[in-house]
């Protein structure tokens, strides 16, 4: 069970969730699903590089300089520097997509994710919030925003994401990485920031 929980934590790692959200946008939103694959490929590369590859590439440096004690970052304070550096890369990804002018929706999703990361950094100064729950909550918030904003029938996808969210939350609790409250608040923050940003801000 412990090995399965770790596998789930890696499969649904916070750094992979923006790419998953982008995949949903490019495949379920009508005028986005019709984009040529060459355009979609550019979007995938920009999003994956700026929200996963570049942030993860700094972790060995943080470990070497003792900013973090391990890649698990067990204390809330250890997460502040990696989260802030990730926010910079998130904004870079947003800026590149803004310049390419391919999709204002994906730009908004990345910008909402950026603000969620910034908020998690602030919270981490005082308290250990679940980044896994925050990230997957953000994807759930995206799906809800697509339902309300475009009237797309995504209830099945929403149900699957809620189920996956519960499974990932259970895995994090089983690994004793977080308390139930840290997981619950993380999920609410991610869902709320992305949903409200896409519906009312951007």
UniProtKB/TrEMBL annotation:
Keywords: Membrane, Transmembrane, Transmembrane helix
TM helices/strands, residue ranges: 7-30, 42-63, 83-102, 108-126, 131-148, 154-174, 181-201
Signal peptide: none
Entry superkingdom: Bacteria
Name of the protein in question: PAP2 superfamily protein
């Amino acid at each position: 069970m412990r090995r399965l929980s770790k596998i789930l934590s890696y499969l649904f790692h916070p750094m992979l969730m923006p790419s998953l959200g982008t995949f949903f946008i490019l495949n379920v939103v009508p005028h986005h699903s019709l984009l040529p694959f060459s355009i979609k490929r550019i979007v995938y590369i920009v999003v994956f590089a700026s929200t996963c590859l570049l942030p993860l590439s700094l972790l060995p440096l943080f470990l070497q300089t003792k900013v973090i004690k391990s890649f698990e970052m067990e204390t809330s304070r250890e997460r502040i520097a990696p989260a802030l550096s990730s926010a910079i890369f998130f904004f870079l990804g947003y800026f590149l997509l803004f310049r390419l002018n391919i999709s204002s929706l994906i730009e908004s999703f990345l910008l909402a994710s950026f603000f969620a990361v910034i908020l998690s950094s602030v919270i981490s100064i005082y308290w250990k919030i679940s980044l896994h729950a925050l990230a997957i909550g953000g994807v759930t918030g995206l799906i809800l925003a697509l339902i309300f904003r475009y009237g797309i029938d995504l209830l099945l996808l929403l149900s699957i994401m809620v189920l996956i969210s519960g499974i990932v939350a259970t895995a994090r609790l089983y690994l004793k990485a977080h308390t139930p409250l840290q997981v619950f608040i993380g999920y609410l923050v991610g869902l709320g920031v992305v949903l409200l940003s896409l519906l009312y801000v951007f």
